[in-house]
């Protein structure tokens, strides 16, 4: 099995497989993950053309240093067989699998990917699987799905299909998917895979996007799917620790270290108690900052 590199997934930009212009443009934006879509953004009449376009893009214009995924149609759709044949041959970093409901589906897809990898001589096990959780059944089984197969490196919450399956109304505040977001996030944490948040569909509502992304970040998500280039910097910004957050994290570790030397388990900083979980959160902030390319060496802590 291939050794996994860790990839930042703050933003996953969908570019429709039936829009050659968007597919080319998407190469040049700041998203961490580019997702070429063969599923719901492609009408039935364009499925064959989209498959060819995505394959050609991957062969001739694949961006260097960018994590690229291909979203295939679901396991039970009439397009799955051709999609998986072409998508694996395009050798993406990951396949995004829509509408996953059971661990056995992930295992079946992983087995199919392995067969094709072997047939065409690709490194075994390198292509990752990102499972889109977009039904009540998927949410209920998220824990098993997240640990179904070593290829699984992330789960996403996909709110549009999910709310349709729940007979819920999709709102911007997102109360209807609050439980699902938490359930999927906890499943990801239990399995040690990344948790990716819902698409915010109104591309003209920046304030709404900010509120939605702040919520996702506070809940613990690692990133968010986006559909328009305007959404990328906003979302990257939320999932990259700010200077203020980094500075606070450094001060927490400083206080912990001083406490340790003085033989204390809990110390205070700015009047608040600092103990083990706060130290852990500070370490997470610094790990996220390093992953985002922020250099921490020699950084001074200023109150
Ligand atoms: C919404 C719109 C049509 C608007 O386009 P418009 O062209 O009107 O927008 P403009 O503002 O005019 O664009 C300004 C400039 O940006 C360029 N530009 C725009 N979008 C770009 C882009 N994506 N990539 C690269 N470039 C782009 C454009 O070409 C122009 O370039 P230029 O002319 O040079 O200035 C377009 O964005 C778009 O197609 N988005 C992706 C839609 C999609 O993939 N949906 C499926 C995934 S969600 C789903 O399935 C639900 C889910 O499954 C989710 C889950 O599972 O996670 C669930 O259940 O919840
Ligand atoms: Mg969907």
Automatic annotation (TrEMBL):
Its cofactor is Mg(2+). The keyword Electron transport does not apply. GO terms for molecular function: lyase activity. Pfam families: HpcH_HpaI (PF03328). Keywords: Lyase, Magnesium, Metal-binding. Gene3D superfamilies: Phosphoenolpyruvate-binding domains. InterPro entries: Aldolase/citrate-lyase_domain, Citrate_lyase_beta/mcl1/mcl2, Pyrv/PenolPyrv_kinase-like_dom, Pyrv_kinase-like_dom_sf. Residues 10-229 form the HpcH/HpaI aldolase/citrate lyase domain. This is HpcH/HpaI aldolase/citrate lyase family protein.
């Amino acid at each position: 099995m291939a050794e996994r590199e860790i990839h930042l997934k703050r933003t996953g930009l969908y570019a429709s497989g039936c829009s050659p212009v968007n597919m080319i443009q998407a190469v040049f934006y700041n998203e961490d993950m580019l997702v070429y879509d063969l599923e719901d953004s492609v009408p039935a009449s364009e499925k064959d053309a989209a498959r060819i376009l995505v394959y050609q893009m991957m062969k001739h214009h694949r961006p260097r240093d960018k994590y690229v995924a291909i979203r295939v149609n679901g396991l039970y759709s009439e397009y799955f067989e051709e999609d998986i044949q072409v998508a694996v041959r395009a050798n993406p970093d990951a396949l995004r699998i829509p509408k996953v409901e059971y661990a056995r589906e992930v295992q079946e897809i992983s087995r199919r990917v392995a067969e094709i990898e072997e047939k065409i001589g690709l490194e075994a096990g390198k292509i990752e699987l990102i499972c889109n959780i977009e039904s009540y059944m998927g949410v209920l089984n998220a824990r098993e799905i997240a640990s179904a197969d070593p290829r699984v490196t992330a789960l996403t919450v996909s709110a549009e299909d999910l709310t349709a399956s729940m007979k819920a109304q999709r709102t911007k505040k997102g109360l209807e998917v609050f439980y699902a977001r938490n359930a999927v996030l906890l499943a990801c944490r239990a399995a040690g895979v990344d948790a990716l948040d819902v698409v915010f569909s109104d591309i003209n509502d920046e304030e709404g996007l900010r509120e939605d992304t702040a919520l996702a970040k506070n809940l613990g998500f690692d990133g968010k799917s986006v559909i328009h280039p305007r959404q990328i910097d906003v979302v990257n910004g939320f999932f990259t620790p700010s200077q203020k957050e980094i500075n606070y994290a450094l001060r927490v570790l400083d206080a912990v270290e001083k406490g340790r030397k003085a033989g204390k388990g809990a110390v205070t900083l700015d009047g608040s108690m600092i103990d083990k979980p706060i130290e852990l959160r500070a370490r997470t902030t610094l790990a996220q900052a390093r992953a985002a390319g922020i250099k921490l060496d020699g950084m001074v802590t200023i109150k």
